[in-house]
Design brief:
Largest sheet of chain B: 8 strands, antiparallel
Number of helices of chain B: 9
Strand content of chain B: 25-35%
Number of strands of chain B: 28
Largest sheet of chain A: 4 strands, antiparallel
Radius of gyration of chain A: 19 Å
Distance between the termini of chain B: 20 Å
Strand content of chain A: 15-25%
Oligomer: heterodimer
Number of helices of chain A: 5
Helix content of chain A: 25-40%
Number of strands of chain A: 4
Helix content of chain B: 10-25%
Structural class of chain A: alpha+beta
Structural class of chain B: alpha+beta
Distance between the termini of chain A: 58 Å
Radius of gyration of chain B: 26 Å
Shape of chain B: elongated
Order of helices and strands of chain A: HHHEEHEHE
Strand order of the largest sheet of chain A: 1-2-3-4
């Protein structure tokens, strides 16, 4: 009876621990935490990084590479184009995450779903989530 | 787009041009906002319901019509610091050759960003159409100044009560006035001209024709293609902002990017006619097509001054596959299997070679579709400063890239252009040309045209409704 009690207690502690784990990026200004913990994302699938981002990714653009000449990358942003342009006009950059990717991938803005051309969707996570992250660059202020 | 034909009447009414009346309409929905130092400006294409245009003689009828269409006016509403808002009307009267080379569309010229190749007249008037000054421009530079001095009087013809007349302007018959009636439809913000009726001669009109005078106003700047504060003050007939007042020394101006690169462009155009170049380029392309890898060669000169080419190298990393120790090396060439323009790695690589070998100043890139680009170090001092100020940023074992803020600018421009429908390749070349210029890299990006001639690529930034626009304004 005593041993059963201990097991239950351990299970309870474990579940509390899981509940406490929250995404690294709770708000756009938290993106520096991704850079601080870059090593846990490098050489890992992109989806690991994506799931650590809580704010909605409003705009994403992919810049694939098909050669050793340059690295392909995704840029994730938390504001729409109008807001982005407005901030840039004042010589500021809204928060954004650039994720450099090891593999070649396909991305054509003109072929994306018209209504979700700039959005990062679950379908994108499925399609690109297993690409390997080789580096993270963060920038922006608000 | 030809702003001279635009009308707020949008689709229904005929657009009247160049008749004999005084109505004019700014095209508000095509306004562009600029911040230029202390100046806040709005430029609006200006349509004259009626306007006199002195059409150059020796043009055939079609060319006359095209020339009339090419003349552009814009209304500039501006203020300096906390001064009252002012208005000027700027008219671009292009030289025939310039207009012809631009297919009679000079609409990309504005007073804040003028084509460095612009040649013709610029007439600056106040909102009452009173001429403030007239300049003759050649390749973006002022070569003649005309300034009518207004006195009270009766016009020379004695038949119109003009009321004022210039001592330096002669009121005389102006030949070949036409009235053109055009019909168009607004598609989004752009007016698409459906057709224009044949020009109707409207008879002989009289207008002021001014002659060159020794205008005692100091030149606001030699090159007004990208005017700074003092330059704008001079253009608009204002005192420059700040504490100086009254003209004074001209501000230091950046050299014209096109003329700055011209000697390098000429050299590469001569070089690219050499059979050694053509053969090497074809070999590089063919090898790349076979294995999808990068291949490259280095061009040098032997002791007799003859152009030589190194054996073909095959790439296996981000470094261009070239032999930098080739005798008399001055340029290299490699292919890009990804069909994209030169990369930041190409640029940083070229500068690092050039720092040690000043004659080695050119890196050519041929893409899968045969497009040839060239990076050329046109100012080694600036190039060295650039790599010191903006050292490449690199993830170990991967190709280098620009550091911020260049990286963000570069990505922004590509993003903006791609979302507007341009291909990734064109967006890339425009973005690269822009950042190389903006950050004073000392490196020019050239591209070979269909006739085999290289031209410097130049991208200009304008602002409209709070958003930046990027337009190709490549050197001719």
């Amino acid at each position: 009876m005593k041993s059963i009690y201990i097991l239950n207690l351990l299970a309870l502690l474990f579940s509390i621990n899981i509940c406490k784990a929250q995404q690294l990026v709770q708000k756009p200004s938290d993106i520096n935490k991704l850079k601080l913990q870059e090593s846990i994302f490098v050489n890992k699938p992109l989806k690991n990084l994506i799931k650590e981002i809580k704010p909605q990714i409003v705009m994403v653009t992919g810049w694939p590479s098909k050669s050793t000449e340059r690295l392909g990358y995704f840029v994730f942003r938390f504001v729409d184009k109008k807001s982005y342009d407005s901030t840039r006009k004042n010589s500021k950059t809204p928060y954004q995450i650039t994720v450099f990717i090891k593999e070649t991938f396909q991305w054509n803005n003109h072929e994306r779903n018209k209504d979700q051309k700039l959005n990062w969707t679950n379908s994108d996570t499925n399609k690109y989530g297993n690409l390997t992250v080789v580096g993270i660059k963060i920038s922006g202020e608000q | 787009m030809t702003p001279g034909l635009l009308s707020e009447s949008e689709s229904q009414d005929p657009l009247y041009m160049y008749a004999t009346n005084q109505g004019k309409s700014p095209v508000w929905n095509l306004g562009q906002v600029f911040e230029n130092g202390a100046y806040d400006l709005v430029t609006l294409p200006l349509m004259y319901k009626v306007r006199n245009v002195q059409v150059p003689e020796n043009l055939n009828c079609l060319e006359k019509e095209n020339y009339i269409r090419s003349v552009k006016s814009e209304m500039v509403i501006y203020k300096v610091n906390n001064s009252p808002v002012k208005c000027r009307i700027i008219t671009f009267l292009p030289d025939v050759n310039y207009a012809r080379n631009r297919s009679y569309d000079i609409s990309h010229n504005t007073i804040t960003r003028m084509d460095t190749a612009y040649s013709g007249m610029i007439v600056v008037k106040d909102s009452d159409e009173k001429i403030i000054r007239i300049w003759q421009i050649q390749h973006g530079k002022i070569i003649k100044k005309m300034k009518p001095v207004v006195v009270t009087g009766v016009n020379a013809a004695g038949e119109n009560s003009i009321g004022t007349e210039s001592t330096h302007c002669v009121f005389q018959p102006v030949a070949d006035n036409f009235r053109v009636v055009c019909f168009g439809t607004m598609v989004g913000d752009v007016l698409v001209i459906d057709h224009c009726n044949d020009p109707e001669p409207t008879g002989t009109e009289y207008d002021f024709v001014c002659e060159e005078v020794d205008d005692d106003t100091p030149l606001p700047c030699d090159d007004i293609s990208t005017p700074e504060d003092e330059c704008l003050g001079g253009i608009f007939g204002d005192d420059p902002p700040g504490d100086g007042g009254g003209g004074g020394d001209n501000p230091p101006t950046e050299p014209d990017p096109c003329s700055q690169a011209q000697s390098f462009v000429s050299n590469i155009n001569v070089f690219s006619q050499n059979p050694t170049y053509s053969t090497a380029k074809n070999n590089v392309l063919a090898s790349g097509a076979t294995d999808q890898k990068e291949h490259g060669v280095t061009f040098g000169k032997n002791s007799n001054g003859e152009i030589t080419v190194s054996p073909l190298s095959t790439g296996n990393s981000y470094n261009a596959p070239v032999n930098t120790n080739w005798q008399g090396a001055f340029a290299d060439l490699h292919n890009h299997p990804d069909n994209l323009p030169p990369s930041s790695a190409d640029m940083y690589g070229l500068i690092s070679i050039n720092i040690n070998k000043s004659d080695y100043s050119t890196r050519m890139v041929v893409t899968v579709d045969g497009t040839v680009y060239a990076l050329v170090v046109i100012d080694p001092t600036k190039a060295t400063s650039f790599v010191n100020q903006y050292p490449k940023q690199q993830i170990a074992n991967y190709p280098p890239d620009f550091p911020d803020p260049i990286f963000t600018d570069f990505t922004d421009i590509k993003f903006d252009l791609v979302t507007k429908g341009l291909s990734a390749k064109v967006a890339d070349e425009m973005a690269l040309a822009f950042v190389l210029d903006k950050y004073n890299s000392g490196v020019a990006l050239l591209k070979q045209d269909a006739n085999g001639n290289f031209h410097r690529l130049k991208t200009e930034q304008t602002s409209s409704n709070g958003a930046s626009n990027y337009i190709a304004s490549n050197c001719l």
